[in-house]
Amino acid sequence: MKRMLSGIKPTGRLTLGNYIGAIRNFVAYQDDYEMFVFIANMHAITVAQDKAELKKNTRDVIALYLACGLDPEKTTIFLQSDVHEHAELGWIMTCNSYMGELQRMTQYKDKTAKGETGITAGLFTYPSLMAADILLYDADYVPVGVDQKQHVELTRNLAERFNNRYGDTFTIPEPLVAKVGAKIYSLQDPTKKMSKSEDNPKGTIDLLDEPAVARKKIMSAVTDSLGIIQYEPEKQPGIANLLTILSSLNGEEIDHIVARYEGKGYGELKKEVGQAVFDFLTELQIKYHEIIKSGAAEKVIKEGNEKASYFAHKKLMKVKKKIGFQIF
Ligand code: TYM
């Protein structure tokens, strides 16, 4: 069985973008792949985090993974910082990465271009740690949204470089980016990614938003003045985004939705999308609250950590031997 791995940072609350671009696919793939899904809390601290919030957000990611349908019988769910091999291989990967290639990573480039101050060294070497996450488990595939594809491509280069230098060690992973929903856009600026860190909360739907509030956000989503419902992301990014959200939640082909809306107005489309989001969040949050109450998250993580550590340890030993760290 081919192996798959992915993770999400517990920075802020998870968004509908995280669900559609990532978690929904993890759930779909868990029957056919050996699946590893983790909480990337070591990546979270590349920007300053409040301790209490980080703890809450981390617990929430676990509970939301389970509420969205990840099954711990099928998927190994673990916490990155509890499997210390990530930090160790992360360092080795940092030493295997060139400054130039890290400088080309868009996340880092965007932050520096905006003139942000206080960029940490961790943020710069973030992709090297991400490579370690993936390579420790010999993942064949890495399901991610569009924004993370570049990091998986760097991982491939680092793995090939290591294999060439030290002999066959790592599986070369492939990014898996879904055809629909790999980038969900802000409801207020549909040319920008919907993101946990967006300044305008009206642009982002949090998975833990009150369903009625989320519906309102859809109703006030920015569209255009063309008045035609068609899937034209360049010309009508707002409408394309709403169509993508609906298709991802109800499983209907976008063409089919467009055909249903021939001659109809944006208000009607927004109403249907708003209702789909409302229903989705209502059901999800019922499960989330049950999971939080049951205390299931702790057991899932303990078992997941153990299983992940078993694989990570074996792999790291092999790497250490190859590079000359094991001397006796
Ligand atoms: P993160 O936490 O930013 O995002 C988690 C996943 O959600 C996807 N995503 C989106 N997809 C569609 N539309 C959006 N608006 C949207 N926003 C986020 C992301 O593409 C991602 O798949 N570096 C990673 C975490 C990570 C990781 C890894 C992932 C660390 N190590 C190893 C895979 C493998 C990150 O910051 O994702």
From TrEMBL:
GO cellular component: cytosol
InterPro entries cross-referenced by the UniProt entry: aa-tRNA-synth_I_CS (IPR001412), aa-tRNA-synth_Ic (IPR002305), Rossmann-like_a/b/a_fold (IPR014729), Trp-tRNA-ligase (IPR002306), Trp-tRNA-ligase_bac-type (IPR024109), Trp-tRNA_synthetase (IPR050203)
Catalyzed reactions per annotation: tRNA(Trp) + L-tryptophan + ATP = L-tryptophyl-tRNA(Trp) + AMP + diphosphate + H(+)
GO molecular function: ATP binding; tryptophan-tRNA ligase activity
BP-aspect Gene Ontology terms: tryptophanyl-tRNA aminoacylation
Binding site for L-tryptophan: D133
Record's keyword terms, sorted: Aminoacyl-tRNA synthetase, ATP-binding, Cytoplasm, Ligase, Nucleotide-binding, Protein biosynthesis
Family: Belongs to the class-I aminoacyl-tRNA synthetase family.
Description of how the protein assembles with itself and partners: Homodimer.
Cited PANTHER family: TRYPTOPHAN--TRNA LIGASE, MITOCHONDRIAL (PTHR43766)
Task of the protein: Catalyzes the attachment of tryptophan to tRNA(Trp).
Protein's name in the database: Tryptophan--tRNA ligase
Lineage: Bacteria, Bacillati, Bacillota, Erysipelotrichia, Erysipelotrichales
